[in-house]
Amino acid sequence: MSNLYCPQLVTIRVAIAALVRSKSLILLCVFTFISSGLFAQKVTPADTIKKSKGDPNLQLKQIKAAKDNLLKDSTNNEPKKSLFVDTTIQNKYGDLLNDDIQYNKKYPIWKPAVEVLGVNVFTWSLDRFILNAEFSHIGPASWGYNFRNGWEWDSDRFGINFIGHPYTGSMYFNSARSQGYGYFQSIPFAVGGSLAWEYLGETTRPSYNDLINTTLNGAFLGEIFYRLSSNILDDRTRGGNRVFREIAAGLIDPVRGLNRLLQGKSFRHTNKEVYQKEPLNITLFSGIHKINVDNQTVFGKGPTEALINIQLDYGNPFEIRSRKPFDLFRLRTELSFGSGRKLLDNLTGYGVLFGSNTHYGKLSVLYGAFQYDDFWDNKTFELGALGFGGGAITKYSFSKNINLYTSAHVALVPLAGNSNRFGPDTSQVRDYTFNDGFETKIESTLTLGKYVSASFAYYYYFLHTFVGTPGNNNINILKPRLTVQIVKNLSIGFEHFIYFDDRYLQNLPGIHSSRTEQKIFLSLFLEDPQRKGRYN
Questions:
Q1: How far apart are CA 131 and CA 342, in angstroms?
Q2: Which residue ranges does the record assign to the DUF3943 domain (predicted)?
């Protein structure tokens, strides 16, 4: 299926489709630079702007300064709790644990339903009248064909199925999420939008993989986009500050941006914070990497490409509190420039669904259920996996400045795509298998203050092929990394990337392939100014 396929910073369908047809893949760039007491207390009045006190922007600066002073780091980079913070409705940083329902009311169900329909109509209109795509020539005949012949596993390209459809699903999801519906309440709208498109939006038969990816990975991306835009928005601001926030939030979550205009929220002014916010730290990486192909594992052999990587860490996993879906998440994206048409090398991440915290002396632990999304699309292999499972994130403090962070996860994989024996997708049709299975992930980082960090990441995927050449795949990915501070938050680093794939096929010889990369990069750590400290 050729549903909407677009990057985060481009929402115009024409440009997206043109790039797809020219065999280009643009980064789905999720990016922004802005981003307990023993008894319950009243909400601190420092969060509220008072008209009698003059300039609102000056008051906002004073509020931030007061919070920074109130919640200065104590030992181990953990802010102190304060009697001025009501931990039943605020986190330890003084920010809301939930959107204020007085200012973010729940709209009637027909409104998000109509908007979901509008997303499909808009997408189809561009496909039909601008691009004149063959699949868009729909009508009673195609609708009858789809209903009579039922469902299939489609043959669309890897990027369309594992990035394009999740992005479309995020728009369905946010049609409801941005109109006062919660995470779980918004998922049915992604289901409905996908079903409507599968049966009525194109001439090809509805496909199982589209419905799964659009719904589940759509909710994954949709909630992340919603949370990131909330961290930018502040209805207390005015002037150029406000304009910048509205534009930036709208680029990250276009459906929410449209709804804010329709609801009048883009222009309203409140005297207090009305959106949930969590710590948001951003790490930017830029450098070069050597890609060793054809089972070469020798250092420094193969083509050289430029890389840009963005890592977003949202939420503090070691704050003791109740958690809703995606109160904590990590998202990484990496662009690769140089040889070949592949631009989006990988997009990986996880989000907590529910969890609890505990402490054992110097050890802090978050454990719970997580959702996982993995997308690898490069010169030598493709791998997309949707996972649900359990995990734990830990921090062990050897001293105030020496900490060991570790995360371990095990998850079931109901749907995965994996490049077949002939390599990655270089055509306009499917050149990969559909699979299920399970995955295991371990990441560990030792930090010596801000001066040196040494990390090791290991991902394992066991995939059983149910569409494609029958068999099982064992995929191992290892990523040791070392970074050393140059000045302040700027560091230089080296990473060795190792990929192994062992395929055991029915009635065919096994296939064993490997690939390595060496990456040299500069990294810039952009710390949330009001919520200091590395969290994971």
A1: 23
A2: 150-255
- The pLDDT confidence band at residue 35, using thresholds 50, 70 and 90, is very low
What are the beta bridge partners of residue 430?
none
Segment (H or E) for 512: strand 511-526
Amino acid, res. 494: F
Verify that 357 and 496 share a domain, yes or no.
Answer: yes
For residues 220 and 310, state if they share a domain: no
Residue 417 lies in a domain: yes
Give the DSSP H or E segment for 360.
Answer: strand 344-360
| Residue 97 forms part of a structural domain | no
Q: What is the CA radius of gyration of the chain?
A: 24
Q: Strands, E, within 361-468: which ranges?
A: 363-377, 382-397, 402-419, 432-448, 452-467
The answer to whether position 240 is within a domain reads: yes
Residue 518 φ then ψ, to 5°: -125, 130
Residue 534: its pLDDT value, please?
Answer: 60
CB atoms within 10 A of CB 348: 21
Residue 164 domain boundaries: 13-28+103-263
358 lies in the same domain as 463? yes
The per-residue pLDDT for 299 is 63
227 pLDDT more than 90: yes
For residue 177, give the nearest of 209, 244, 243, 224 by alpha carbon.
224
Residue 221, number of CB atoms within 10 A of its CB: 27
> To the nearest 10°, the Cα dihedral for 335, 2, 220, 102?
120
pTM recorded for the entire structure: 0.87
Distances in Å between the alpha carbon of 119 and those of 134, 154, 235, 385, 423? 20, 22, 27, 26, 35
Q: Name the domain boundary from 196, 229, 263.
A: 263
User: Is 476 within a domain?
Assistant: yes
Q: Out of 233, 263, 293, pick the residue that ends a domain.
A: 263
What does the DSSP 8-state code read for residue 75?
G
The separation between the first and the last C-alpha atoms of the chain, rounded to the nearest angstrom, is: 38
